[in-house]
Amino acid sequence: MSAKIITVTSGKGGVGKTTAIASLGIALASLGEKVVCVDGDIGLRNLDVIMGLENRIVYDIVDVVEGRCRLRQAMIRDKRVPGLFLIPAAQTRDKNALSPSDMIRLGDELRPEVDWVLIDSPAGIERGFKNSIAAADRVLVLTNPEISAVRDADRVIGILEAEEKGSPELIINRVNYEMVQNGEMLSTEDVLDLLAIKLIGVVPEDKSVLVAANQGMPVSLDNDSRAGQAFRNIAMRLTGKEVPFMDLAEKDGFWDKFSKLAGGN
Amino acid sequence: MSLFKSVFNNEKKSAQSAKERLQLVLTHDRTDITPAQLEALKDELIEVISRHISIEPAAVNINVAREGREQRLVADIPLKVAQRRGK
Questions:
Q1: Is residue B81 part of a domain?
Q2: Can you give the pLDDT at residue A259?
Q3: Which positions ≥6 away from A101 have C-beta within 8 Å?
Q4: B17, B23, B69, B72: best to mutate for the A interface, most A CBs within 10 A
Q5: Closest to B15 (Cβ–Cβ): which among A157, A185, A196?
Q6: What tens digit of pLDDT does each residue of A90-143 get?
Q7: pLDDT tens by residue, B39-83
Q8: Exposure of A191 in the CB half-sphere (CA atoms within 13 A)
Q9: Is residue A21 helix, strand or coil?
Q10: CA-to-CA distance for A91 and A232, rounded, in angstroms?
Q11: How many angstroms separate the CA atoms of A206 and B58, rounded?
């Protein structure tokens, strides 16, 4: 095996990177791939709680890099899906505990172990971000259709281009179809026109994401969740399958229209 | 008047304002050119070009245009109608 290393980053915080990593990890593993999710946010660890694995942490990424444990000892197996692992961030150390060359070495150690390494980048454009992209083969920039998130995404894309990381791919998260229709939210086309990189996914705003986070169940495990479906689609695109982009209007589909006609709602 | 104003304002949706504001902000973020620098450049260009040909200084327009992720400096410099000598 020689894993593909994918980093999800955004510039701005709170746009959904950790949710994306957890959901893509579950979705790829469900396709039969072997996946390790790596939390790159040293000092602000969160991927563990989103994946619901916070009670099983013994060793973390800094322990691996500093040789206090073997790589496999720090890989927590997710029992819900075969072939899914988490390497948690260190919570008590500062972000300077790791360097980009540490990450490249860790990536090289992980490559023969799995098919995919998914790295959750911290917000910002400093050390933690540089660490997270150091080993990446592909970078996914995640943004919301929101003015500050798009601006920060553009900065990150500029830095990735300057560092010759190749052109990143874009995930637009938390799109509210109704607001886009009313001209109150930037549309997918608007964001694409502004950022001018390749689109790999559009994820609708979905209450089930918060519910899933509350329970430590990545949203892609929820078959009824539209955000979960969007992340499963992105996972398939990562593996090279052509999957059409989801029709965001679908929610306002037959039954909604029917119930509106019938005077409901 | 206020009714007219509110009707007029309603025509431009907030997403459109967001997009237009982002277009300007991203151009500045990407190029690091300030409006003041652009203005200074424009004045010097007018001066240099006017030494050679006659132009309409007030109609000169210098802008940074976006093309995908590339930025280019676009100068629109209208020429004055030539005054033929000896007529």
A1: no
A2: 54
A3: A134
A4: B69
A5: A185
A6: 998 777 899 999 999 999 999 999 999 999 999 999 999 999 999 999 999 999
A7: 999 999 999 999 999 999 999 999 888 888 989 999 999 998 876
A8: 30
A9: helix
A10: 29
A11: 52
Q: How far is CA A30 from CA A82, A123, B5, in A?
A: 8, 28, 55
What separation in angstroms does the CA of A251 have from each of A103, A244, A254, B73? 41, 17, 8, 44
Note down the domain range covering B57.
2-76
Mutate to test the interface with B, among A172, A192, A193, A198 (most CBs of B within 10 A): A193
User: Any idea where the domains of chain A sit in the sequence?
Assistant: 4-261
Q: What are phi and psi of A6, to 5 degrees?
A: -120, 130
Residues composing chain B? 87
- Distances from the Cα of A38 to the Cα of A21, A58, A180, A218, A226, angstroms: 9, 15, 34, 15, 25
| pTM score of the predicted model | 0.87
Residue A98 to residue A83: CA distance in whole angstroms? 26
Tell me whether residue B58 is in a domain: yes
Number of domains comprising chain B: 1
Q: What is the mean pLDDT of the segment spanning A248-264?
A: 57
Q: Which residues neighbour A26 within 8 Å (Cβ) at sequence distance 6 or greater?
A: A78, A80, A81, A84, A218, A220, A221
In a domain, B83, yes or no: no
- B39: in domain: yes
Which class is domain A4-261? alpha beta
Q: Locate the chain A residue with the closest alpha carbon to B29.
A: A155
